[in-house]
TrEMBL record:
Keywords: Membrane, Transmembrane, Transmembrane helix
Family to which the UniProt record says this protein belongs: Belongs to the PA-phosphatase related phosphoesterase family.
GO terms for MF: phosphatidate phosphatase activity
Localization (cell): Membrane
Pfam families in the record: PAP2 (PF01569)
Main location: membrane
Cleaved signal peptide residues: none
The organism of origin for this protein: Pristionchus pacificus
UniProt protein name: AcidPPc domain-containing protein
Domain of life, per lineage: Eukaryota
Gene Ontology biological process: phospholipid dephosphorylation; phospholipid metabolic process; signal transduction
Protein topology in the membrane: Multi-pass membrane protein
SMART domains registered for this protein in UniProt: acidPPc (SM00014)
One cellular-component annotation, GO: plasma membrane
Length: 315
């Protein structure tokens, strides 16, 4: 006579849906996404950055130039790794604790469900990342705010300050590094800050009738959605949460100490990254409700899965 657990396993197997993966659709989606990302950088550069003047007594743009403590390229690679590794480990843990109602195949091969689900979260995280990078680029080129090290890099000449509050619009930069001089007009708002906070918040923040700062430090959107309803890794989530938030805040702090951004640039970057992460997690990925309460089975995972499969049939 079959045991109760064996009968349950067979019942799950007979009710499973089979999704057949379409590698071309997966590559096409990511290629399109990165194509849009490329255009968000190319188009603003084609129009050029706004040329703004400066005031003679503006001490906020007279700080020395320092190199990046955390380069954007390395930070982005670290974020992409987190976007894949954390969902991969999380979905593996969820799959081992519960029976899945779906299975995935490619040709004659069975593909682990946790791998596909991790890819889905990876895709949604990319959508929000590209969105916030695009809007940040347009803001930078549109405002053309001068960085704190503008005077040190530009070394403007050909002007005379008749009075301290005079605005100088006609001047010539005598600096030798053309790239640095171009970049010194892209202060508002901080792309490092918005990107770092976006990544941390997408993985790490939710609110549940608590003070904003408390919830900002102690709760997570993605991990709360996938782990909390199942009471998995209850003791291990907190260190991960705190580490992600602290790492993002350190990035934000270096943008001021490196003299690349004014404090207001960083504050706006934090707010913008937070807003895009919450919108992506709730509206696109379906990881949480509008009140940021975690959703056990995110609707967005099923929606995205339809774009990377050839259809489904009952087993």
């Amino acid at each position: 006579e079959e045991s109760h657990s064996e009968r349950e396993r067979k019942d799950v197997m007979t009710s499973q849906k089979i999704f057949r993966l379409n590698p071309l659709a997966i590559l096409g989606n990511f290629a399109t996404l990165y194509g849009v990302a490329f255009l968000t950088v190319l188009i603003p550069e084609a129009f050029g950055v706004r040329q703004r003047g400066f005031y003679c007594d503006d001490a906020s743009i007279q700080h020395p130039f320092y190199d990046h403590t955390i380069p954007m390229g390395k930070m982005t690679l670290a974020i992409l790794a987190l976007f894949f590794v954390i969902p991969l480990l999380t979905e593996l843990l969820v799959e081992r604790s519960e029976s899945s109602s779906v299975s995935y195949r490619w040709r004659k091969f069975s593909v682990p469900t946790f791998l596909v689900q991790a890819l889905v979260i990876f895709g949604y995280a990319h959508i929000g990342l590209v969105l916030q990078v695009a809007l940040t680029q347009w803001a930078k080129y549109g405002f053309g705010r001068l960085r704190p090290h503008f005077m040190d890099v530009c070394k403007p000449i050909g002007y005379v300050c008749a009075e301290p509050s005079q605005c100088i619009t006609n001047y010539t930069c005598s600096g030798t590094d053309s790239h640095k001089m171009y970049e010194t007009r892209l202060s508002f708002f901080s792309g490092h800050s918005s990107t770092a906070i976006y990544a941390a918040v997408f993985l790490a923040v939710r609110s549940k009738n608590q003070m904003m700062m408390k919830s900002f430090i102690t709760h997570q959107i993605y991990l709360e959605s996938r782990l909390t309803p199942r009471n998995l890794l209850a003791g291990a989530r907190r260190p991960v949460q705190i580490s992600l938030i602290l790492a993002a805040l350190i990035v934000c702090a270096t943008r001021v100490t490196d003299n690349f951004h004014h404090p207001s640039d960083v504050v706006v970057g934090i707010a913008f990254g937070l807003a895009v992460a919450v919108a992506t997690a709730s509206n696109l990925a379906g990881l949480c409700s509008y009140s940021l309460r975690p959703v056990r089975e995110p609707e967005g995972r099923r929606i995205f899965a339809k774009f990377i499969t050839r259809g489904d049939r009952k087993r």
